Amino acid sequence: MKVGIIQFPGTNCEYDTQHAFASLGCETEILWHKNDAIPQGCDLVVVAGGFSYGDYLRSGAIAKMSPIMKALKVYANNGGKVLGICNGFQVLTETGLLPGALKRNEGLHFISRHHHLKVVNNENDFLRHCSIDQVVNIPIAHHDGNFYIDSEELQELYANNQVLLKYTDASGNIDNPNGSVDSIAGICNKAKNVFGLMPHPERAIEALLGSNDGKAMLEGFISA
Question: Catalytic site residue 202?
């Protein structure tokens, strides 16, 4: 399996992501934002976390104008699989590949810690190795992780099984760290080939680092 990982000025999780997929036996390639095409043979493209362009205008708002994002839209519209993690999730909402928007955290503070998530839907490649209502422990690290969507679009998300993950405590009870609507931590598009989440599964693949719960998430894409 070949995984392309997009790198913008300010991206800081591309090598974590590369290490995570390489440890799962994948071929990986870092894709510079000025590239105007997705390499042939990519089975998955990851928009990695960080602070693209320093988030100087709005998280993901400048990155969406990079040449590679035009290519990514074509790739996704042709059925290619895309995963946006943290800032990558923000970029995907800014480009319209995913619905909703990411706002400043409700408490106006940067949050960096492990946090529990509950699996809401696993009828997709990303979470197919996880169980419904399974609680996982995944790091979060964001300042603008407050997912917002209006009530009509929220109903559509649920109707189409696009809500994937919610923030909870270790028992699966809602524990919302940033004010996200319905405590939503991750979603997908209607076609279920574009995925976005604020937590960092690529930082949770080795128990030595506090959790390996992210491993099953990333493995869902392999041989999918």
Answer: yes
